[in-house]
Amino acid sequence: MINSELIDDWGGRQDKLRPYLSASLFRLMTEEEFNRLVEAQARDLVASLKPPIHKTGRYVAGLAMHTMETEFLVSLVAEYEDEFIHFYWETSA
User: Fold this and answer.
1) Distance between CA 88 and CA 81 in Å, rounded?
2) How many CA atoms within 13 Å lie on the side-chain side of 16?
3) Rounded to whole angstroms, how far apart are CA atoms 87 and 92?
4) Is the bond into 51 cis (omega within 30 degrees of 0)?
5) Do strands 27-28 and 59-66 pair parallel, antiparallel, or not at all (unpaired)?
6) Residue 35 class from Cβ within 10 Å (0-12 exposed, 13-18 middle, 19+ buried)?
């Protein structure tokens, strides 16, 4: 997970990675929960995301890093046999 964040151009923001990780839940979640949380946050988008989010490949595991239960952002990571999906959503509301 950390490597995928660093690959995703964290240049100049490395100082923000430690607080992000230390505040994370690292709670395991099922594929159903991943799909439900993504759908809940993306339902008002012009092109909403309808489950299943990943239509091919077997679900391996998922982590809830941040959820609306703790702060105004959602960060989820799902591992499939053929790719990783990192869903990130935040608001200033």
Assistant:
1) 21
2) 7
3) 17
4) no
5) antiparallel
6) buried
**Which residues make beta-bridge pairs with 54?**
none
Q: List average pLDDT for each run of 10 residues in the chain, which is 93 residues long.
A: 56 72 88 94 86 89 88 90 91 76
Q: Which amino acid is located at 8 in the chain? A: D
Task: Classify the phi-psi angles of 60: left when phi > 0, otherwise alpha if psi is within -120 to 50, otherwise beta.
Answer: alpha
Identify the H or E element spanning 63.
Answer: strand 59-66
Q: Is 59 left (phi over 0), alpha (psi -120 to 50) or beta?
A: beta
Q: What is the pLDDT of residue 71?
A: 77
Q: What's the rounded Cα separation, in Å, for the pair 41 and 87?
A: 10
pTM for the full model?
A: 0.76
Q: Pull the structure tokens for residue 49.
A: 């995301």
Please enumerate in sequence order all residues whose Cβ is within 8 A of that of 9, keeping only pairs 6 or more positions apart, or say none: none
For residues 71 and 90, what is the distance between their CA atoms, to the nearest angstrom? 9
